[in-house]
Structures are given as structure tokens and as C-alpha cells.
Specification:
By secondary structure, the protein is α/β, with parallel strands linked by helices. The protein has ten helices and 15 strands. It has helices at residues 46-56, 89-96, 106-113, 175-188, 199-212, 221-226, 232-256, 267-272, 281-286, 308-319, and strands spanning 10-15, 19-26, 29-30, 36-39, 64-69, 73-74, 77-79, 86-88, 100-105, 122-126, 137-142, 146-154, 157-160, 262-265, 300-303. Helix 1 packs parallel to helix 2 (89-96) and helix 5 crosses helix 7 (232-256). The two termini are 29 Å apart. The chain is 34% helix and 22% strand. Keywords: Kinase, Transferase. This is Glucokinase. Belongs to the bacterial glucokinase family. It comes from Acidimangrovimonas pyrenivorans.
Length: 321
């Protein structure tokens, strides 16, 4: 392809536990024709992915680069939670040939996406009062892992606080929940939220439901969803997942008070969207005793754009000037 103009575009990337999505952006706008996806298993690290991408895009010389990492970022260094990759600003600048670089937690990038999505990319799940323009918001991501980040508008600009809340203790309200926690702890060392509310966690939940039924078995996530009509254990697994998803989202709402809305993102969240109403997401979300009425204050939507984090990276980079 023809060589693109130097120092005009920004490279943005969303590095998940399974895939890396990469694109070029001009200001806050992604260039749709440049979006590519790579399997992480095919590469030894991010630098390999970015070098291949830039070669495929005509060795463009980027002015800036911003990446979103599915893991903690500390002192400019990002580490994937579910893959042994480490990324730092120097490596990113070298790989992208960029002067300005930024490394975000993946949910930080999703937070910077808000306000830059096409309206048809937001699917309402729960309605609520019309929010104030400066009301706090919350993004919750469910995919290979689980995480969330609050979004605040301040006089200094948007602030998105990073977290690793997918690794807090899984809540337990019933004896079955306690047995689930013990099951997860035995297999994984600690009963964290992500150990159930994620793609792999969903498969682990099916194993638990099958064992409880006296017929231990396992299935891949896609197979569980596809066999809901024929396999009662698959249907029960989906019901458990939705209930726990609602309960955890409600807990996070009480922690952050996102009167501006909650935004669900990630492949697993999108896959479950058609089943949230049927299996009682709203009831579980609002089941907070004397605070149940308060829970009706938080509208919930699903971000249906698979490349939203790339838009968030571009928006954040543009805000740096």
C-alpha cells in the first residue's frame, strides 16, 4: 500500500488476554479500514504485533501511540493479567516510532470512549432518571477477564480511575454460592469475581453446576450458550451467571454511585445481553435491601462496539494535546 504521511496519525491498540486489536486514528477518529485483529498466541509480545501491523500499513511513522492493557498499569508499565506480556513506554515508542505515548488499563480506555460512540452502539438494559452532565459513570468489562472503572468529569478534564476489581472476592448470598466459592478456590486458589464472571469463568461455572447435579462435565462457553434449549445444566449455568453478574454490578454501583449510567462492555457482556431480562439481571442488580430504591437511579447500557477501547485510546491521546 502507499506510504502514509509521517507524524499525522496515531497508533492505538487494545491488548486483551486472547487478541490484540490495532488501528490508526486521526485525532479522535479511527480509520475503519486500518483496524486489524491479531491472535496473541501467534506472537512473543506486543512489539512483534505492532511491528507486523505497521509493516502491513506501509511502515507509517506515527506521531503518537496509546495502548489499552488488560491488566494493571503502574509507573508507565503495563502487565497483562492472563498472559505473560509486559509493556512500557520506551518499548511502545520504539515499536510505533511515536513521540507521544500512553499506556492505559483496558477499562480506562473504555471510560475515555464514553461520549465518542455512535448512538446505535449503546443498547439500553435498565432505564433510569435523566443524568446530570457531570454525573459519575461506570464501565464494567466482561470478556477474557472482568474489570471496572469509574469515570468522572472534572474542571481539569476527564478522570478514569483504574482498578483490578475482577480479583476481589466473589460474593456469596446462598449455600450454593458458598459451595461455588469453595469449588473455585479449590481449582484456582482464590474465589475471585473473574473466576466466574468471564469467558473461562462461565465454563468453570458449568463444571460446578454439572457436579452439583451429580454428572461432572465440561463444555466450552459457545457450546453452553448453544445448548441452552437442550441441556438443563446449560440453562441453569446461564441463570447463575446472570444473577451473579447483576449482584456484582449492583455492588459496584453502590461503591461508585454512577448516576450518569453504567456501561457494560466486552465480548461476554455482549453475548449475555439477550438473556439479561429473562434470567433476572435487574432483580439481582437491585436486590440491596433498604437501598433497593436507590438502585433504580442507575441506568445500564451495553456498549456494542467491539472496537470501543480503540476509540477511547484515540480520545485520550488527543486530550494530551
Amino acid at each position: 500500500m502507499p506510504r502514509l504521511a509521517a507524524d499525522r496519525y496515531a497508533l492505538v491498540a487494545d491488548i486483551g488476554g486472547t487478541n490484540t486489536r490495532v488501528a490508526l486514528a486521526e485525532g479522535r477518529q479511527l480509520l475503519p479500514e486500518t483496524i486489524r485483529r491479531y491472535r496473541n498466541a501467534d506472537h512473543p509480545g506486543l512489539e512483534s504485533v505492532l511491528r507486523r501491523y505497521l509493516h502491513e500499513e506501509g511502515d507509517v511513522d506515527c506521531a503518537g501511540a496509546c495502548i489499552a492493557v488488560a491488566g494493571p498499569v503502574r509507573d508507565g508499565v503495563g502487565r497483562l493479567t492472563n498472559l505473560d506480556w509486559t509493556m512500557d513506554a520506551r518499548t511502545l515508542a520504539r515499536a510505533a516510532k511515536a513521540e507521544t505515548v500512553a499506556i492505559l488499563n483496558d477499562l480506562e480506555a473504555q471510560g475515555h470512549t464514553l461520549g465518542h460512540l455512535a448512538p446505535d452502539m449503546l443498547r439500553p438494559v435498565l432505564t433510569g432518571p435523566e443524568p446530570a452532565a457531570d454525573a459519575a459513570r461506570l464501565v464494567i468489562g466482561v470478556g477474557t477477564g472482568f474489570n471496572a472503572a469509574p469515570v468522572h468529569e472534572t474542571r481539569w478534564g476527564r478522570v478514569v480511575a483504574a482498578s483490578e476489581c475482577g480479583h476481589v472476592t466473589l460474593p456469596a448470598r446462598t449455600e450454593a454460592d458458598l459451595r461455588l466459592s469453595q469449588f473455585v478456590e479449590t481449582a484456582h486458589g482464590f474465589p475471585g469475581v473473574e473466576d466466574v464472571l468471564s469467558g473461562r469463568g462461565f465454563e468453570r461455572l458449568y463444571q460446578f453446576v454439572s457436579r452439583e447435579a451429580g454428572h461432572p462435565a465440561g463444555k466450552k462457553a459457545a457450546e453452553i450458550m448453544a445448548t441452552m434449549g437442550d441441556d438443563p445444566r446449560a440453562r441453569e449455568t446461564v441463570a447463575h451467571f446472570v444473577r451473579l453478574f447483576g449482584a456484582v454490578a449492583g455492588d459496584l454501583a453502590l461503591i461508585h454511585l454512577p448516576f450518569g449510567g453504567i456501561f457494560l462492555c466486552g465480548g461476554v457482556a455482549r453475548a449475555f445481553t439477550p438473556h439479561l431480562a429473562e434470567f433476572g439481571f435487574a432483580a439481582a442488580f437491585r436486590d440491596k435491601g433498604r437501598f433497593s430504591e436507590l438502585m433504580t437511579s442507575f441506568p445500564v447500557s451495553v456498549i456494542e462496539d467491539d472496537y470501543a477501547a480503540l476509540t477511547g485510546c484515540a480520545a485520550h491521546l488527543a486530550s494530551l494535546g
